[in-house]
Amino acid sequence: MKERTFVMIKPDAVKRKLMGRIIQRFEDKGLEIVKMRMLKMSRELAEKLYEEHRNKDFFKELVDFITSDRVVVMVIEGEKAISVVRKMIGKTNPLEADMGTIRGDFGYSTPDNLVHASDSEKSAKREIQLFFGEY
Ligand code: CMP
């Protein structure tokens, strides 16, 4: 069954001009980009996106980073898109992410780990609604 997931290309990837290469990977895999836009997030929006991390010690660092420059947000559709995209981006910490994943190939630290993708259908719905107003 087709699923939709939310993907965000983070400010570090935009600054490093990796946007095209990251998008290319999703297209090469056979996934469909059904919505996409570039924006600079407000702190309010960033805090909402990452509300589950509000009590973590890295929360302020994460919000500072994610609001530091533009991001590209997308809705990606495909068979099992949520787990396929999570597999493609790799583990949160790029030092632990497998080679061949986006974070494994291009990343070296957190919070600047290049991409974010929804971890469940519930998160996908919430995150897509937050940025695109509808699921
Ligand atoms: P993401 O998949 O967007 O979900 C939460 C984000 O918090 C994560 O990617 C990283 O950008 C960031 N993050 C997670 N763990 C840490 C950490 N230990 N230190 C700094 N940032 C982190």
How does this structure look, described?
The protein has 135 residues and is α+β, with helices and mostly antiparallel strands. The chain has 7 helices and 4 strands; from the N terminus they run βααβααβααβα. It has helices at residues 11-15, 19-29, 43-49, 59-66, 81-89, 102-106, 121-132; strands at residues 2-9, 32-39, 71-79, 115-117. The chain has a 4-stranded antiparallel sheet, with helices on both faces. The longest helix has 12 residues, at 121-132. The protein starts with a strand and ends with a helix. Adenosine-3',5'-cyclic-monophosphate binds at residues 53, 58, 61-62, 92, 110-111, 113, 116.
Total count of helical runs of at least 4 residues: 7
**Helix/strand structural class:** alpha+beta
- The low-confidence parts are none
Tell me about the largest β-sheet. 4 strands, antiparallel
Order of helices and strands: EHHEHHEHHEH
Question: What is the secondary structure topology, with strand pairs?
Answer:
Layout lengths: L1 E8 L1 H5 L3 H11 L2 E8 L3 H7 L9 H8 L4 E9 L1 H9 L12 H5 L8 E3 L3 H12 L3
Antiparallel strand pairs: 1-3, 1-4, 2-3
This protein binds adenosine-3',5'-cyclic-monophosphate.
Describe the structure using short key phrases:
four-stranded antiparallel sheet; alpha+beta; binds adenosine-3',5'-cyclic-monophosphate; 135 residues; Alpha-Beta Plaits; 7 helices
